[in-house]
């Protein structure tokens, strides 16, 4: 796209239909991008959790809702050489090591004395060559980890302000050979020229790791905005089992795409907006609700947040 100042993006995992929480995040990512003159890209994060046909349905749903994006749509499964190139670069700089630990061993190990809670305790960080050879001979394929030189990293979030969070020796390539999410996301955001990352605030704790990794790969750290999630009436994160929560569920109940969009718009404080351009015109990030939105999928008529 010509004359854009950068790119925003939505990066769904094709594990099933998008629910209203995912669609609301997609709408917000689109609004942040378009309101700042950015292009908007879609990236299918299909390194795992893939359900056949899900990505086509996700794209259809975004289109039905009225969102548009700049081609091409990238698929992570087609970009493995890029992730391997980044891993090779980190390895050449002495910043990786093989890890032979099982999940259970990691859970049982005491967290490193000065490390962040829940962080990888560094069991395999300083194995001798002989120990490495012995563990390799046991036959379990090694994961590859980052040799991190910090335990924390600070990022700035447009909605949440400064956020300092844990960085550990995160996995770059899993034992089964699949590049890890944290690596792929950083490599792709950089390669796609994405300088604005808008996503659910459940991903905020991963962000310091990703930003640190970006600095190690000499790529700019994007602007971040983590948006509140949508909750069910029990206060838990909205899930498919909560009822009619996908666009297709709502259409099957007789709602129109405009009504679903209106519902999402209302949840953001934009009343009576039935088209995306109407919402875009009124979009003010600083006025967005900072609290999660509670949705009762069993009630067709949602209580309006509008006066
Ligand atoms: N693929 C991730 C998800 O669907 C989102 C990753 C991101 O936005 O950075 O949860």
Descriptive overview:
This protein is an alpha/beta fold and 307 residues long. Helix content is 33%, strand content 16%. The protein has helices at residues 20-35, 54-65, 80-92, 103-108, 129-137, 181-191, 207-216, 247-252, 257-267, 276-282, and strands at residues 7-10, 39-44, 74-75, 96-99, 143-146, 152-157, 161-166, 171-173, 196-200, 223-227, 230-231, 293-294. Strands 1-2-3 form a 3-stranded parallel beta sheet. Helix 7 links the parallel strand 9 and strand 10. Helix 6 (181-191) crosses helix 7. The longest helix is centred in the N-terminal third of the chain and has 16 residues, at 20-35. The model has no long low-confidence stretch (mean pLDDT 92). Glutamic acid is lined by residues 11-13, 45, 185, 199, 203.
Helix and strand string, N-terminal first?
EHEHEHEHHEEEEHEHEEHHHE
Trace the largest sheet across and list its strands.
1-2-3
The outline comes out as elongated
Rg over CA atoms, rounded to whole Å, is 21 Å
Q: Compute the number of helices.
A: 10
Portion in strands: 15-25%
Give the termini separation: 39 Å
Main beta sheet strand tally, sense and closure: 3 strands, parallel
């Amino acid at each position: 796209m010509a004359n854009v100042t950068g790119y925003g993006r939505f990066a769904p995992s094709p594990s099933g239909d998008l629910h209203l929480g995912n669609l609301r995040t997609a709408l917000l990512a689109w609004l942040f991008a378009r309101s700042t003159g950015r292009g908007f890209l879609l990236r299918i994060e299909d390194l795992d959790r893939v359900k056949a046909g899900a990505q086509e349905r996700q794209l259809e749903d975004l289109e039905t809702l009225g969102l548009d994006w700049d081609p091409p749509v990238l698929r992570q499964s087609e970009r493995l050489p890029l992730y391997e190139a980044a891993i090779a670069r980190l390895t050449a700089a002495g910043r990786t090591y093989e890890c032979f630990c099982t999940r259970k061993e990691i859970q049982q190990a005491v967290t490193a004395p000065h490390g962040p809670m829940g962080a990888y305790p560094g069991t395999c960080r300083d194995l001798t060559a002989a120990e490495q050879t012995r563990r390799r001979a046991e036959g379990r394929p090694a994961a590859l980890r980052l040799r991190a030189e910090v335990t924390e990293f600070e990022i700035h979030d447009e909605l949440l302000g400064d956020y300092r969070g844990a960085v550990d020796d995160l996995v770059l390539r899993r034992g089964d050979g699949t590049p890890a999410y944290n690596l792929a996301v950083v490599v792709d955001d950089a390669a796609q020229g994405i300088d604005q990352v808008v996503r659910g605030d459940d991903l905020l704790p991963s962000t310091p790791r990703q930003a640190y990794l970006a600095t190690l790969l000499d790529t700019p750290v994007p602007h971040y905005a983590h948006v509140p999630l949508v909750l069910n009436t029990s206060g838990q994160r909205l899930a498919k089992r909560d009822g009619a929560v996908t666009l297709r569920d709502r259409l099957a109940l007789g709602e129109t795409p405009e009504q679903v969009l209106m519902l999402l718009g209302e949840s953001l404080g934009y009343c009576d907006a039935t088209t995306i351009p109407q919402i875009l015109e009124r979009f003010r990030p600083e006025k967005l609700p900072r609290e999660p939105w509670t949705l009762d999928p069993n009630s067709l008529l949602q209580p309006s947040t509008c006066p």
